[in-house]
């Protein structure tokens, strides 16, 4: 038996029509080993009826020509009325030219002589199975290609040109996007669609690629009927005939206008935002610098006020020291007056009364004592007032320093200013301590009676 591809035969279903029962049973039993399914009929009429019922489930017909009720030729004529392609193999004991002529007219695949040579039959069936399988593959590929074509045509702009690169076809999507009617562009050159923004050299490059059977890919700006434009990602390939000659080109475009305009809009917004951010940052920097300068000015004012406070305090201490010295001198003068007065009384106690000079001296001494007491009261009152005043001023200055320090803490580049504030704060505390030390020194070295009256008991 000839070598056949059993896998290909197994794909097929067969109808065997034979009026000889023994021959029919023997051959159908053999064929069942190779085919997926084998249907049998005992005459042409039964064969026609069976094929009519199971047309979609039968791939090949093997039939005898000479049969009762309907011959093989008559059966095939009926079948050809509704199926032009089913392959048929005729088997007959006659080698009649008339049958042969009819078989050719009915597009019979093969004609074999009885008794059937099984080897020859399997060889014929193997060839037929191979042909049917390749037809099946071609049909599948054509179906897939049609799907791809439909997808491309429905979702992309499609144009075709002839060998002169004149438009021969445009699809519905092209008309929908551009507003052109199909008839308006048929016969026009491809470059007709060029927008003024596109360099002519671009289309020269496209034409050169097409004529040399090279693919062109790029982005094109194309005109529309109303004078506007659409932007497309474009692929252009050459079309060829059976001999490989260029017959034109196929243009496939994807409309990217909305996406490109959106990207441009986003880019414009980004540029605008960057500009606004830059301006705001400059304004913020200016405001920050202005705030820093303002704080520096406040600090300078506070520093001057602190210096003035220290100067006033030193001035007050100097005044206290001056008055203390004057008090000591007055005390010394009083002692001298009292001594002179005592000596005068001792000399004249026994003999004479106080003279007018002694009387005036007593009055003067009394007056001086009253003046000293008044001065002590005034100095004590003024000292307390000045002390309270400077303590309040120092507290206010410290509060202002703290507030300024808090403001400066909110800025990243104010470390130096903060250090200055800390410095002045420490200096203010140091000067306050020095003032307290001076006060203690005055109390320690001054007249205790006067100091007790001025500062109280400490």
Identify low-pLDDT runs: 349-354
Structural class: alpha/beta
Terminal-residue CA separation: 140 Å
The sequence of SSEs as H and E is HEHEHEHEHEHEEHHHEEEHHHH
- The main sheet orders its strands as 2-1-3-4-5
Which descriptor suits the 3D outline? rod-shaped
Give structural notes.
This protein is of the alpha/beta class. The chain contains 13 helices and ten strands. The longest helix has 92 residues, at 257-348. Residues 349-354 have low confidence and may be disordered.
Task: Outline the fold blueprint.
Blueprint: H1 6-10, E1 13-17, H2 21-31, E2 37-41, H3 44-53, E3 60-64, H4 72-80, E4 88-92, H5 97-105, E5 110-113, H6 118-155, E6 157-161, E7 167-170, H7 172-178, H8 182-185, H9 200-211, E8 216-223, E9 229-240, E10 246-255, H10 257-348, H11 356-409, H12 415-445, H13 448-455
Parallel strand pairs: 1-2, 1-3, 3-4, 4-5
Antiparallel strand pairs: 6-7, 6-10, 8-9, 9-10
């Amino acid at each position: 038996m000839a070598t056949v591809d059993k896998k290909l035969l197994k794909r097929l279903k067969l109808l065997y029509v034979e009026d000889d029962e023994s021959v029919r049973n023997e051959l159908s039993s053999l064929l069942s080993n190779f085919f997926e399914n084998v249907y049998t009929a005992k005459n042409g009429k039964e064969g026609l009826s069976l094929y009519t019922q199971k047309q979609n489930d039968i791939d090949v017909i093997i039939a005898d020509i000479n049969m009762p009720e309907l011959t093989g030729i008559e059966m095939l004529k009926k079948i050809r009325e509704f199926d032009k392609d089913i392959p048929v193999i005729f088997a007959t004991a006659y080698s009649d030219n008339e049958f042969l002529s009819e078989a050719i007219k009915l597009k019979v695949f093969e004609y074999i002589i009885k008794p059937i040579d099984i080897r020859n039959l399997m060889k014929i069936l193997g060839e037929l199975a191979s042909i049917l399988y390749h037809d099946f593959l071609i049909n599948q590929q054509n179906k897939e290609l049609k799907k791809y074509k439909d997808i491309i045509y429905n979702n992309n702009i499609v144009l075709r040109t002839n060998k002169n690169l004149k438009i021969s076809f445009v699809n519905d999507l092209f008309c929908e996007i551009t507003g052109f009617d199909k008839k308006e562009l048929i016969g026009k050159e491809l470059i007709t669609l060029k927008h003024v923004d596109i360099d002519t050299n671009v289309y020269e490059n496209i034409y050169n690629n097409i004529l040399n059977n090279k693919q062109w890919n790029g982005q094109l700006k194309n005109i529309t009927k109303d004078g506007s434009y659409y932007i497309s990602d474009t692929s252009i390939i050459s079309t060829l005939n059976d001999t490989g000659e260029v017959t034109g080109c196929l243009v496939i475009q994807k409309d990217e206008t909305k996406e490109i305009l959106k990207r441009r809009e986003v880019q414009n917004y980004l540029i605008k935002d960057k500009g606004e951010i830059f301006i705001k940052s400059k304004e913020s920097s200016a405001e920050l610098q202005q705030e820093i300068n303002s704080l520096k000015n406040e600090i300078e004012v506070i520093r001057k006020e602190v210096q003035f406070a220290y100067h006033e305090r030193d001035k007050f201490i100097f005044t206290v020291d001056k008055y203390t010295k004057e008090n000591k001198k007055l005390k010394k003068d009083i002692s001298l007056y009292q001594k002179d007065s005592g000596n005068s009384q001792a000399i004249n106690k026994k003999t004479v009364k106080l003279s007018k000079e002694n009387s005036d001296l007593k009055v003067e001494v009394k007056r001086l004592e009253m003046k000293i007491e008044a001065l002590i009261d005034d100095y004590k009152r003024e000292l307390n007032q000045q002390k309270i005043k400077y303590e309040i001023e120092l507290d206010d200055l410290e509060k202002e320093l703290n507030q300024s320090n808090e403001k400066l803490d909110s800025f990243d580049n104010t470390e130096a200013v903060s250090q200055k504030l800390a410095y002045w704060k420490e200096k203010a505390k140091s000067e306050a301590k020095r003032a307290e030390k001076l006060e203690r020194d005055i109390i320690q070295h001054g007249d205790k009676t006067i100091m007790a009256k001025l500062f109280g008991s400490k």
